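hey
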């Protein structure tokens, strides 16, 4: 699965993005569970799901706190809430009902090729690299070098990111997960929000310009780092593969599932935080 930007607040409402899958995959065409299990592995989607736990420390930051404020209890909470088996089962359940055999076969056939297998290995390693700061720094250095050389690779990497909808999807996701997390935290008595949901959404919309610039830059650095061992032709071939209509539908569905699981787990964190720290105004 393409190494999407792992934003601190990346999530999407299933009602918004999963609508495609729910309406385009009737039960008679839904893929079998065993095939979906194989799909998760061959595309690297299982590892992408596992990497969601690496974003967990951003939850306290949204409340103006740090994970260290909770001591050892935070590690226990993350281990329980972001349990790999739980997230895997959630993905399996949704995809088994929404992913058609036609789309599954199309994506599996590509990722089963020699290039596809190598891409998944690189993406899995990138997903699970815990030091995001170091990865970003290395990616930015690669991009800076490419720009100095006038390399066409920058344009190819941008095309790759565009094909997987990194920018627009991430913006909607960041906004949605913040709202869902903060509303859940308020509902659990962890915080007291000083604005209602419509005002909160409007406040986040005013930040879209800066957010888009940041996401675009981070996504480019991430792609430069992840695919540094691949030739320009190989990265271009990957961009072409992701731009195909069937793969676009596969990614729309996978992104929706990944973001929904992340938002769901952050909401669970909000519910549990009420037992770990006193309420505070936000």
């Amino acid at each position: 699965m393409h190494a999407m930007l792992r934003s601190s607040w990346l999530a999407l409402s299933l009602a918004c993005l999963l609508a495609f899958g729910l309406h385009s995959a009737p039960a008679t065409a839904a893929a079998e569970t065993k095939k979906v299990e194989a799909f998760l592995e061959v595309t690297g989607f299982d590892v992408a799901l596992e990497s969601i736990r690496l974003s967990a420390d951003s939850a306290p930051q949204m409340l103006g706190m740090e994970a260290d404020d909770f001591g050892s209890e935070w590690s226990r909470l993350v281990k329980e809430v972001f349990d790999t088996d739980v997230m895997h089962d959630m993905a399996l359940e949704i995809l088994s009902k929404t992913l058609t055999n036609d789309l599954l076969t199309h994506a599996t056939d590509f990722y089963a090729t020699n290039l596809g297998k190598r891409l998944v290995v690189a993406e899995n390693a990138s997903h699970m690299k815990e030091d995001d700061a170091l990865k970003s720094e290395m990616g930015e250095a690669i991009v800076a070098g490419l720009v100095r050389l006038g390399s066409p690779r920058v344009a190819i990497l941008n095309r790759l990111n565009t094909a997987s909808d990194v920018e627009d999807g991430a913006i909607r996701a960041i906004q949605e997960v913040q709202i869902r997390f903060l509303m859940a935290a308020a509902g659990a008595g962890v915080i007291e929000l000083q604005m209602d949901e419509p005002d909160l959404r409007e406040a986040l919309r005013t930040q879209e310009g800066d957010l888009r610039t940041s996401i675009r830059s981070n996504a480019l650095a991430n792609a430069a780092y992840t695919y540094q061992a691949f030739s320009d032709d190989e990265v271009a071939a990957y961009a072409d593969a992701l731009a195909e209509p069937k793969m676009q539908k596969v990614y729309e569905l996978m992104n929706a599932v990944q973001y929904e699981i992340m938002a769901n787990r952050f909401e669970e964190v909000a519910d549990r935080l009420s037992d770990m720290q006193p309420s505070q105004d936000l």
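The beta strands are 191-192, 280-281. The two ends are 37 Å apart (CA to CA).
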